[in-house]
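for the recovery benchmark. C-alpha cells below, seq after
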C-alpha cells in the first residue's frame, strides 16, 4: 500500500490537489485582505468624519454645559461610535459618553495635542474585542489648540463579518478538493495504464528480447512514446554494432595520436597504451606492467610536470569512474621540452636585465650618497658626477634597447597619424561609454580645457586608450561613484586625465600595474571581464605616440591616470 502511493497516478492526484489548495488559499487570502481593508477603510473614514465634525462643532464652543448635548448628538442608536471623550489642552476630561473624569493620555491624544490627527487600535476594557480610536485637536478662533476630541468605535462587527467569510471559503475549498481528487484519479488512470504496459515490454528488452512490439491505441503523447519504444527496439541492435565500430575508431585515433596515452586499472596495471607513449617515455610498455617506476606521480594531481631523461613532460591524469567508484586512471603525456626551454630563456632574460639595471643603480647610489653625506672637493665631485653620468647613459641605452625589442616584437605598430582636436576625441568616446556609467548610477564629469592646438595622433588607437582608461574607471568604481575626465594643455603637451573615487590600487602593486597580464585582484578582474592587457595596451600606444602615462592611486580613495601627448 505504501508503494502504491508513490506511483505516478497518486502523484498526479496529489499535484492536482495541491494546485487547487494553493489556488484557493491565494484567493482566500486575497479576498480576506481585500474585505478587511475595505471594511477597515470605511470604518476609519466614518470615525474620522465624526471626529472632524465634533471638532468643528466645538470650535469656540467648549462650554461644559453644551458638551454633553454634542456627545449625545453623535451617540445615536444608528451610530457606530462607542465612546466619545472631550478633553482640554492638558488632557483633562471635560465630558465623556461614559461619565469618566480625570486625566486621559494615549499616543493618539498626544499626537492630537501636537496639532495632528491621531489614531490607534486598543483593547476594549469594558468588553471583549478591539476598538479603533481617533483623536482630533480643537482649535479656537486664534488658531490655538483649545482641546481634543477622542472617539472610539468597536471592531467586533467587522471581525464577525470576516469570520463568516472565512467559513464560506473553507467550505468552498473542501468541496473543490473533493472534486479534484475524483477527477484526478480518473485522469491519472488514463495516463498510468499505458506507462505500465511500456514498462513491462521494457523489462523484456532488458532481458535481451529485442523483438517486442507495443500495440498503439492512441495518437497522444503516450501513443508516441509507444511508437518511439518500437523504433528503439529496432534500432538497438544496430546501435550496439555502431558502438563497437566507434570503439574501434577511438582505439585507432589513440594509437596514432602524437600525445602519449596510458590507461591503468585501479591497481596501477597498464591496460592500454599507444606508440606515442613509448616514444615519449623511451620505454617498452606491456599490458599488465605496473605504472609505478615509469610515472611517479600523485594520482590526486589533475595535471603534473615531470622530467623524463632530457625531456620535460606534462601529464594530465583523469580517473575512470563507474558508479562513483574509481576503476582506473588515464594518463595523457605531452612533451613540453621546447616550451620549457623558452620559459627558461625568458626567466634568464629577466634575470639578466635585472642584473644590468641593478649594477649601474648601485654605482649611482653609492656615488650620490658619497656626494650627499661626505665632504668632497670639487675635483672629486666632478669625477663622481662623470661616473654617475656614464652609468646613467648606460641605463638609458639599456632601456632604449628594451623598447626597441618590444617594438620589433609587436605587430601593427605603424601609426596613421593625423592632426586632431583631443577634446573632440574625448567627447566621442565619453558619449559611447556614458551609458555604462549610467547603468551603475555613476556621475561622469567631463572638464575639457579649450584646446590651443591640435595633436598629431592615430585617432583610432587614441580612442582605444581613452576607452580602456574610462572603462577601467567604470568597472572599479562602485555604484553612485564619480568619474572625472579632464583635458589640460601647456606649451609642450596635451594631457587627458581620468580620475575616479573607486576601490584604488595597493601601493605595492602600482609599479607593476602596466605589465602584461598583471592583475591586482585576479578574481575580481575576471568576474568583471578584465584581461590584464588594458593598461599594457594603453602604455604601448601612448609610448608609440611618444607620450607619457602615469598613475596615482590609494586604496579606498580612488585612482588618477594621466596621459601626456606631445603636439608633434
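predicted aa per position
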Amino acid at each position: 500500500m505504501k508503494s502504491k502511493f508513490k506511483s505516478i497516478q497518486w502523484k498526479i492526484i496529489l499535484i492536482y490537489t495541491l494546485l487547487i489548495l494553493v489556488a484557493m488559499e491565494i484567493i482566500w487570502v486575497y479576498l480576506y485582505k481585500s474585505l478587511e481593508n475595505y471594511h477597515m477603510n470605511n470604518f476609519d473614514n466614518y470615525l474620522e468624519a465624526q471626529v472632524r465634525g465634533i471638532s468643528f462643532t466645538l470650535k469656540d464652543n467648549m462650554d461644559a454645559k453644551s458638551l454633553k448635548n454634542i456627545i449625545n448628538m453623535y451617540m445615536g442608536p444608528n451610530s457606530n461610535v462607542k465612546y466619545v471623550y472631550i478633553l482640554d489642552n492638558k488632557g483633562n476630561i471635560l465630558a465623556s459618553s461614559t461619565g469618566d473624569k480625570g486625566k486621559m493620555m494615549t499616543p493618539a491624544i498626544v499626537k492630537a495635542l501636537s496639532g495632528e490627527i491621531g489614531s490607534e487600535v486598543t483593547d476594549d476594557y469594558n468588553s471583549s474585542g478591539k476598538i479603533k480610536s481617533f483623536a482630533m485637536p480643537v482649535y479656537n478662533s486664534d488658531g490655538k489648540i483649545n482641546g481634543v476630541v477622542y472617539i472610539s468605535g468597536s471592531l467586533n462587527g467587522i471581525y464577525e463579518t470576516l469570520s463568516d467569510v472565512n467559513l464560506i471559503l473553507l467550505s468552498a475549498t473542501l468541496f473543490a478538493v473533493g472534486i479534484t481528487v475524483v477527477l484526478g484519479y480518473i485522469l491519472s488512470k488514463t495516463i498510468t495504464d499505458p506507462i505500465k504496459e511500456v514498462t513491462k515490454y521494457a523489462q523484456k528488452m532488458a532481458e535481451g528480447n529485442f523483438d517486442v512490439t507495443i500495440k498503439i491505441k492512441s495518437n497522444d503523447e503516450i501513443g508516441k512514446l509507444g511508437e518511439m519504444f518500437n523504433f528503439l527496439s529496432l534500432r538497438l541492435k544496430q546501435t550496439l554494432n555502431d558502438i563497437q565500430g566507434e570503439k574501434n575508431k577511438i582505439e585507432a585515433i589513440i594509437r596514432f595520436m602524437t600525445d602519449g596515452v596510458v590507461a591503468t586499472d585501479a591497481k596501477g596495471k597498464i591496460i592500454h597504451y599507444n606508440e606515442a607513449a613509448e616514444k615519449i617515455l623511451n620505454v617498452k610498455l606491456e599490458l599488465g606492467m605496473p605504472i609505478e617506476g615509469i610515472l611517479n606521480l600523485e594520482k590526486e594531481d589533475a595535471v603534473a610536470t615531470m622530467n623524463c631523461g632530457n625531456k620535460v613532460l606534462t601529464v594530465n591524469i583523469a580517473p575512470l569512474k563507474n558508479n562513483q567508484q574509481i576503476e582506473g586512471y588515464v594518463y595523457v603525456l605531452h612533451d613540453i621540452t621546447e616550451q620549457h626551454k623558452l620559459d627558461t630563456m625568458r626567466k634568464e632574460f629577466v634575470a639578466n636585465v635585472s642584473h644590468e639595471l641593478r649594477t649601474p643603480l648601485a654605482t649611482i647610489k653609492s656615488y650620490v650618497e658619497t656626494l650627499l653625506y661626505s665632504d668632497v672637493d670639487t675635483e672629486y665631485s666632478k669625477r663622481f658626477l662623470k661616473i654617475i653620468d656614464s652609468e646613467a647613459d648606460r641605463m638609458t641605452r639599456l632601456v632604449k634597447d628594451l623598447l626597441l625589442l618590444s617594438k620589433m616584437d609587436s605587430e601593427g605598430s605603424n601609426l596613421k597619424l593625423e592632426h586632431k582636436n583631443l577634446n573632440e576625441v574625448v567627447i566621442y568616446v565619453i558619449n559611447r561609454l556614458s551609458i555604462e556609467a549610467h547603468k551603475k548610477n555613476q556621475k561622469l564629469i567631463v572638464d575639457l580645457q579649450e584646446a590651443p592646438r591640435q595633436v598629431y595622433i592615430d585617432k583610432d588607437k587614441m580612442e582605444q586608450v581613452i576607452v580602456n582608461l574610462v572603462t577601467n574607471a567604470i568597472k572599479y568604481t562602485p555604484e553612485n561613484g564619480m568619474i572625472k575626465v579632464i583635458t589640460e594643455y601647456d606649451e609642450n603637451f596635451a594631457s587627458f586625465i581620468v580620475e575616479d573615487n573607486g576601490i584604488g590600487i595597493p601601493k605595492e602593486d602600482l609599479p607593476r600595474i602596466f605589465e602584461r597580464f598583471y592583475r591586482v585582484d585576479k578574481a575580481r578582474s575576471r568576474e568583471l571581464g578584465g584581461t590584464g592587457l588594458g593598461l599594457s595596451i594603453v602604455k604601448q600606444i601612448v609610448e608609440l605616440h611618444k607620450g607619457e602615462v602615469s598613475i596615482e592611486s590609494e586604496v579606498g580613495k580612488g585612482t588618477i591616470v594621466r596621459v601626456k601627448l606631445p603636439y608633434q
